[in-house]
């Protein structure tokens, strides 16, 4: 089922949780909804599910306008961050509940619930109450309950945030597997970029209720739409330096002039942010783009992570471990084709 | 040192137990006196020093009491009134508590505040209003007169709302997503979850109705619609002071409640301790 969100706005008393959000989600895709805490991810999800009414805008499932349809008629499955299983029902009863409400006959109900329980590997726990399950098991039951009624859309709100690191990886792969098996259009909320990168077809990145960029994970990383997107993705975080355009290069504040052929089209005198991914700068013996001074280095085996100074500004880069660079030695840096971005300092818009 | 410590504990324990036993004795004694009194003769019950243990356990007094007043009818009336009150009241309590806890409607907080304010008005003050109501409804001197004023209770609603409030909102939304309407959510999720609270409310309500005296005395006069407590009172005033018969009648009234209490003791105690309810 294709989901079309057009100009969605959600206004709470004073705060605008989501503003003018427009996106189209293709049928059968798994979309990661990513963003810092409080950016409106849950609000967005709740509006798609029908729990929250929109202030303005339109939600379409395929070609049907569901904006004013109440949650119990939209046919979506939703897995809550805290799972929200019914504590007085067994696992089986929990999974059966949506079917019971649809008045599915008992035999068929049990059969479908059992098939779901097998899919998420909880078939041995069906007689337990939710309080007798671990977090990971509860989550799987919640997924089974969401899937059993064959929803058109599956929504997951940070379903992995309560799990330990290993279980998280296991479960996210399981979610991906189930999603590919069932081909349900899925939206997965997270604020873990690695999680988003690893399982999604596309990532939607939000900030303060505004859609920043929607693209396949690699494009988001390689070609961020603005300074926020570049900052948000990547580990270690991208290096940010500030400066002003001068003579076809960028004169860093209290630092050297950075030359690059790419910078020649920039407007002289414009204030910019030069962002460089750690892996984008390499040490060279020839004339590089800029010179820097080693501050501290951390040996990491294969290579070293070094903090180097461009005048007063410090950036992180990787240098080969076999090079001996003492503190205070000068290096020539070459900037690679990928991972170097120039943004307007005030608006954050991408210039290069 | 250690033995001394142990001795200290046991002495304080003994004191506590002695005091508790005394308390229990004081509580139990009237019941003992009532039940044994039911087996004494008219002479025995007046004796001084008192006769502690009855000489026979013949059921004569019960037979006499039953033959002198229609206790079976009183009993049936009490049961009908109790079932009527408790079922109506539970139903309205559940609906009201749900509305105030989960639904949004204009003036909700104001209405709830007003209702809580009404809780401060003692029942005795609205007796006359209630009296007029049943007269106007034309149900004076019928069993309905015993039920109508007790079909809702702000106090129980307040208690249940407290419980409903503690149920996580996400459960409500989860049910919505699963395709539940408000009505089904209430009966399929909320009510089963609230079972312990509900059982306590129902038991307290049942006991209060069973024992109520003032209202039945005002609302009905005909013997055929009297309830047990009022019937007992009428029995005493109409039949002269036959203490031993009174004891027998009282015993018969109390026994159902004692049985109920024995079965549901844990529920009542839990409920009262948890919610700080009044009895
Ligand atoms: N019921 C509400 N009333 C008022 N403001 C709200 C309400 N719900 C959310 N907000 C506000 O809307 C904004 C977005 O909240 P939302 O829960 O969607 O964030 P989120 O992206 O899910 O964050 P997190 O990652 O922490 O879960 C926040 O500023 C929040 O304070
Ligand atoms: Mg959230």
Short description:
The complex is a heterodimer of chains A (352) and B (279). Chain A has 352 residues and is an alpha+beta fold.
Give me some keywords for this one.
heterodimer; A: Rossmann fold; OB fold (Dihydrolipoamide Acetyltransferase, E2P); six-stranded mixed β-sheet; 8 helices; 20 strands; B: MetI-like fold; 2 domains; globular; disordered C terminus; binds magnesium ion
Describe this structure in words.
The complex is a heterodimer of chains A (352) and B (279). Chain A is of the alpha+beta class and 352 residues long. Chain A has helices spanning 41-49, 91-101, 106-119, 135-147, 165-182, 193-199, 217-222, 227-232, and strands at 3-11, 16-25, 30-34, 56-61, 64-65, 76-79, 153-157, 185-190, 202-207, 210-215, 239-246, 249-252, 257-259, 271-276, 281-284, 290-299, 303-310, 313-320, 330-335, 340-344. In chain A, strands 6-7-8-3-9-10 form a 6-stranded mixed β-sheet, with helices on both faces. With 279 residues, chain B is mainly α. Chain B folds into 2 domains: 11-57, no CATH class; 61-277, MetI-like fold (Orthogonal Bundle). Helix content of chain B is 76%, strand content 0%. Chain B has helices at residues 2-37, 42-46, 60-68, 71-102, 108-118, 127-137, 143-147, 154-166, 169-177, 182-193, 195-211, 214-219, 228-239, 243-275. The relative contact order of chain B is 0.14. Chains A and B meet through strand 6 and helix 2 of A and helix 9 and helix 10 of B. Bound molecules: adenosine-5'-triphosphate (ATP) and magnesium ion. The site of magnesium ion has 2 residues of chain A, from helix 1.
Q: What is the helix/strand order of chain A? A: EEEHEEEHHHEHEHEEHHEEEEEEEEEE
Task: Work out the number of β strands of chain A.
Answer: 20
CATH superfamily of the largest domain in chain A: P-loop containing nucleotide triphosphate hydrolases
The tally of structural domains of chain A comes to: 2
CATH architectural designation of the largest domain in chain A: 3-Layer(aba) Sandwich
Q: Please state how the strands of the largest beta sheet of chain A are arranged side by side.
A: 6-7-8-3-9-10
For the CA atoms, what is the radius of gyration of chain A?
A: 25 Å
The percent range for helix content of chain B is over 70%
CATH class of the largest domain in chain B: Mainly Alpha
Largest sheet of chain B: none
The CATH H-level superfamily of the largest domain in chain B is: MetI-like
Spans of at least 5 consecutive residues with low confidence of chain B? 275-279
């Amino acid at each position: 089922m294709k989901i079309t969100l057009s100009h969605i706005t959600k206004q709470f008393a004073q705060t605008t949780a989501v503003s003018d959000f427009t996106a189209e989600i293709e049928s059968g895709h798994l979309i990661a909804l990513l963003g810092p805490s409080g950016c409106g991810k849950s609000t967005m999800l709740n509006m798609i599910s029908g729990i929250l009414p929109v202030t303005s805008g339109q939600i379409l499932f395929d070609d049907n306008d569901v904006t004013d349809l109440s949650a119990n008629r939209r046919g979506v499955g939703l897995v809550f961050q805290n799972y929200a299983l019914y504590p007085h029902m067994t696992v089986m009863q929990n999974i059966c509940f949506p079917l019971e409400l649809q008045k599915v006959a008992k035999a068929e109900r049990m059969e479908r619930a059992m098939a779901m329980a097998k899919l998420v590997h909880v078939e041995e726990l069906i007689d337990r109450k939710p309080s007798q399950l671990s977090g990971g098991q509860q989550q799987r039951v919640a997924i089974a309950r969401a899937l059993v009624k064959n929803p058109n859309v599956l929504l997951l709100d940070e379903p992995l945030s309560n799990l330990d690191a290993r279980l998280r990886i296991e479960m996210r792969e399981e979610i991906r597997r189930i999603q590919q098996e069932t081909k349900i259009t899925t939206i997965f909320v997270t604020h873990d970029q690695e999680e988003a990168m690893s399982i999604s077809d596309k990532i939607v990145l939000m900030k303060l209720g505004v859609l920043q960029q929607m693209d396949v994970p690699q494009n988001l990383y390689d070609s961020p739409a603005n300074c926020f997107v570049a900052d948000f993705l990547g580990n270690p975080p991208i290096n940010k330096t500030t400066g002003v355009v001068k003579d076809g290069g960028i004169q860093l504040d209290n630092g050297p002039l950075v030359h690059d052929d790419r910078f020649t089209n920039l407007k002289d005198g414009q204030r910019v942010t030069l962002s460089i991914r750690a892996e984008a700068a390499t040490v060279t013996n020839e004339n590089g783009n800029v010179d820097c001074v080693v501050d501290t280095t951390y040996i990491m085996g294969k290579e070293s992570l070094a903090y180097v100074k461009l005048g007063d500004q410090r950036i992180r880069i990787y240098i080969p471990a076999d090079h001996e660079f003492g503190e205070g030695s000068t290096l020539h840096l070459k900037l690679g084709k990928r991972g170097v971005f120039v943004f307007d300092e005030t608006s954050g818009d991408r210039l290069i | 040192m250690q033995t001394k410590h142990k001795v200290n504990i046991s002495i304080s324990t003994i004191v506590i137990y002695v005091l508790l036993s005394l308390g229990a004795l004081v509580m139990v004694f009237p019941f003992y006196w009532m039940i044994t009194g039911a087996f004494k003769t008219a002479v025995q019950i007046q004796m001084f020093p008192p006769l502690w243990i009855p000489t026979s356990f013949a059921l004569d007094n019960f037979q006499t009491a039953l033959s002198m007043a229609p206790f079976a009818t009183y009993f049936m009336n009490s049961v009908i009134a109790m079932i009527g009150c408790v079922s109506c009241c539970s139903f309205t309590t559940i609906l009201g508590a749900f509305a105030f806890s989960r639904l949004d409607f204009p003036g909700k907080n104001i209405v709830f505040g007003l209702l809580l304010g009404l809780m401060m008005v003692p029942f005795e003050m609205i007796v006359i209003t209630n009296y007029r109501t049943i007269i106007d409804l034309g149900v004076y001197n019928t069993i309905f007169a015993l039920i109508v004023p007790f079909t809702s209770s702000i106090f129980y609603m307040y208690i249940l709302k407290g419980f409903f409030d503690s149920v996580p909102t996400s459960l409500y939304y989860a049910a919505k997503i699963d395709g539940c309407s408000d009505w089904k959510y209430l009966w399929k999720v909320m009510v089963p979850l609230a079972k312990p609270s509900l059982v306590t409310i129902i038991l307290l309500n049942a006991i209060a109705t069973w024992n109520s005296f003032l209202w039945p005395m005002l609302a009905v006069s005909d013997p055929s619609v009297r309830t047990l407590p009022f019937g007992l009172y009428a029995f005493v005033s109409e039949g002269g002071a036959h203490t031993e018969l009174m004891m027998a009648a009282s015993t018969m009234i109390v026994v159902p409640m004692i049985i109920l209490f024995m079965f549901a003791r844990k529920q009542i105690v839990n409920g009262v301790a948890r919610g700080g309810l009044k009895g």
